[in-house]
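Renewal narrative, Specific Aim 1. Our central claim is that a sequence can be written position by position from structural information alone. The example that follows is taken directly from our test logs and has not been curated for this report. It begins with the structure tokens describing the chain, in the order in which they were read.
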């Protein structure tokens, strides 16, 4: 079985919640790494240079815009 998608972001963000609702509706397995983007480390900055959330990580594939993730 494939690893669940990793969603990096805060539950407080409406953009993160939008992605989580879509994943739940589609029955897609995910796990969330709740972070505060303003105090992230360098690893987060490499995934999202503008420090925006959410970030979807699937292996080496990374998306960091909620509208793109939801498509």
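The sequence written for that structure reads:
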């Amino acid at each position: 079985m494939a690893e669940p998608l990793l969603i990096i972001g805060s539950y407080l963000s409406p953009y993160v919640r939008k992605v989580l609702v879509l994943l739940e509706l589609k029955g897609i397995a995910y796990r969330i790494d709740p972070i505060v983007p303003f105090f992230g480390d360098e690893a987060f900055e490499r995934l999202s240079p503008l420090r925006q959330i959410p970030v979807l990580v699937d292996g080496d594939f990374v998306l960091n815009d909620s509208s793109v993730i939801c498509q």
